[in-house]
Amino acid sequence: MIIIDRALEARAASGKTIKVGMIGAGFMGQGIANQIINSFPGMELVAISNRHINAAHQAYIRAGIEDVQVVKTKNELSTAIATGKYAVTEDPMILCHVAEIDALIEVTGAVEFGAQVIMEGIAYRKHIVMMNAELDGTIGPILKIYADKAGVVLTACDGDQPGVQMNLYRFVKSIGLKPLLCGNIKGLQDPYRNPTTQADFAQKWGQKAHMVTSFADGTKISFEQAIVANGTGMKVARRGMLGYEFKGHVDELTKMYDVNELKELGGIVDYVVGAQPSPGVFIFATHDDPQQCHYLKLYKLGEGPLYSFYTPYHLCHFEVPISVARAVIFKDYVLAPLDAPMVDVVTTAKINLKAGETIDPIGYYMTYGQCENADIVYKQNLLPMGLAAGCCLKRDIPKDSVITYDDVRLPLGRVCDRLRHEQSSYFHASKTLVAAKQ
Length: 438
Ligand SMILES: NC(=O)c1ccc[n+]([C@@H]2O[C@H](COP(=O)([O-])OP(=O)(O)OC[C@H]3O[C@@H](n4cnc5c(N)ncnc54)[C@H](O)[C@@H]3O)[C@@H](O)[C@H]2O)c1
Ligand SMILES: N[C@@H](CCO)C(=O)O
What we know:
Elements: H1 3-14, E1 18-23, H2 27-39, E2 43-49, H3 53-62, E3 68-70, H4 74-82, E4 86-89, H5 93-97, E5 103-106, H6 111-123, E6 127-130, H7 133-150, E7 154-156, H8 161-174, E8 178-186, H9 199-205, H10 209-216, H11 219-232, E9 244-245, H12 259-265, E10 268-273, E11 281-286, H13 290-298, E12 307-311, H14 320-330, E13 343-349, E14 367-373, H15 374-380, E15 392-393, E16 408-409, H16 415-437
Parallel strand pairs: 1-2, 1-5, 2-4, 3-4, 5-6, 6-7, 8-10, 9-10
Antiparallel strand pairs: 8-11, 11-12, 13-14, 15-16
């Protein structure tokens, strides 16, 4: 977003830099640290928290910062910031508590841990940038209610496919078209992948095998498209999305969708496998004005009724600091739920599962996630994928079946379960209220 560069230069010139704390120093966190430190004047990454402090330390060292201080308390962190020292800590909560930090980046991919930290950050009035679609797609709508009440920005990030889709969606809408499809372009989708099959790929790129498995097995893209649906009011055409395989360019895909069906659904989120430009995103939109359609044809966008717009890449961590600047300087959010959830990610058996087994985390061996419209998820009592890890199965579940709340015993005392329950009650009650008033 072009306006950000000058706004940050002005911040740098005035000495009023944006102070950022980051939670999570894995593959993405390391990249974000490098970006803020070396490519974003006007922004300072004052502290990194990670459960293994070495990784937080490494993130600074790899970005060229040697002088790093370990802190354990809020006061130690405040002193480090005041004296211009970069800080690392195992305690994420002190990043929430210090007054000096303007915004937090949460980049763990962990649902329960992320929920705890983000609730604390909101309570202490920090703007929050989530690079955690897994959490956002599970309890984002209720977190947004808390953030709004606290007067802070809670947003998904630029750079990853949801944020890139949303920026393109806003552009397309702002020039007068009506977006009807937000799409994600994938190279591979195979729900049966697991950390063993993905081990070589993970090792080649220095990533975690379970993380890249969640990309290959469709779970991550389901979270990505769920949060785009929640931010646009769109739905899915069917459980698991349409997910066409297509070898050409997305421009040639417009004819594969029924525009009337898209309109009836209020627009859909979807993905395509194998198309170009990969790994980009696309928006299909219509225009009601025949005069403007004439110009669109002249500008080589075709005959309509669906016009294709795309961004050919998603640059993940490269863009995340932009979201921080948008939140802090302009109170602008990249992507946040509009209201009640539109689409959820539901837990599906990757293999035949047996009663008594405990479900392993996202991207492991037992389950994969699929998108489903939220009203169906509610009616069928389906288990959100973001809550599945740690649940104990009460009965056998055949491969490719969806799992319901009735099929499991939840672990006790999790914040994410409490928030999910609150989310269902909050939005279901408000829908009932609206219906009663009509
Ligand atoms: N890896 C990618 O290419 C990529 C691209 C786009 C978005 N993302 C998203 O970014 C997020 C992070 O991904 P990553 O690849 O950096 O993961 P990662 O596993 O490399 O790093 C995650 C970090 O969070 C910490 N963490 C994880 N679970 C935790 C828990 N329960 N409690 C405390 N700390 C915990 C880990 O210690 C680790 O440092 C995820 O939401 C992922 O979907 C990743
Ligand atoms: N969106 C990617 C993961 C990281 O961006 C994918 O599903 O392949």
